[in-house]
Amino acid sequence: MNDHRRKSPFSDHREHRGHGEHRGHEEHGGRSRLPFDAVLTDLDGVIRFYDMSDVAELERAAGLPEGATAEVAFAPETDLPLMLGRIGKSEWADAIAAGLARGHGLAPARGRELGIALADSKFWADQTVVGLLRRARAHVRVSIVTNATPWLDDDLALLGLNTLVDDVVSSAVLGVVKPDRRIYEVAAERVGAAVDRCLFVDDRQENVDAAVALGMTGVLYRRPDDLEAALEPVLG
Fold first, then answer.
1. 180 — phi, psi (to 5°)?
2. Helix, coil or strand: residue 147
3. Cβ contact 20:193 at 8 Å
């Protein structure tokens, strides 16, 4: 579970003056008065959240501890091929079933049922965060940068988020996952911003640290207040 104790959301908040494209106000000489020209945000754990109740019910029926399926599904050896776009949903479910068989002695058919249930878990978007990003987009470019499944486009359509951002950088399409520096560099380039003029928002410390190491301003996300505080220079 996330730790919601109040803390500063900023991992780094250096203000750089660069020449990246932006929609914000300008100083003399064309330089932005804003501390960043683009917002790069994670999807899961920031915008999107999951309802795992159906998986938990199946786990109870199978005699598994709650969370056992997710533990197997999101282990690097199971989900990295998915995040890199090398396998699809069916192969991921098979890998989850194999992991549950090894770790818990679960029959493959039942393991696959759990794998499919997890892959098809219901999800929802935090409308407070969506609203903040929409407001920010009136002033700066906004991009989703996510370690994603190959069916990300379908998920965004279901959430009604197709027009929320200027760009979407998916690890499954790019073939690179966070915290590899290349995914950050590609994201910045695609929105026309210098890396040191980007605000990067993520709920995982290692991903924020990698962004900060490149010169971005990093925000470790725990709740909407964190994002709102980071966007204050833009939203006013």
1. -60, 130
2. coil
3. yes
Question: Full-prediction pTM beyond 0.70?
Answer: yes
Please compute, for residue 231, the number of CA atoms within 13 A of its CA located in the half-sphere on the CB side. Answer: 26
Q: How many CA atoms lie within 13 A of 103 on its CB side?
A: 17
Q: Would you say 65 and 51 are in contact if contact means Cβ atoms under 8 Å apart?
A: no
What b-and-e string marks burial along 166-202, b requiring 16 or more CB atoms within 10 Å of the CB? Answer: bbbbbbbebebbbbeeebbebbbebbbbbbbbbbbbb
Q: What are phi and psi of 13, to 5 degrees?
A: -140, 50
Residue 21 and residue 190 in contact, taking contact as beta carbons nearer than 8 Å: no
For residue 120 the two structure tokens come to 């098809």
- Please say whether the beta carbons of 187 and 169 come within 8 A: yes
Ramachandran sector of residue 148 (left: φ over 0; alpha: ψ -120 to 50; beta: rest): beta
Amino acid (one-letter) located at 6: R
The single-letter DSSP state of residue 140 is S
For residue 214 the two structure tokens come to 């490149």
pLDDT at position 32: 60
Residue 174 reports pLDDT greater than 60: yes
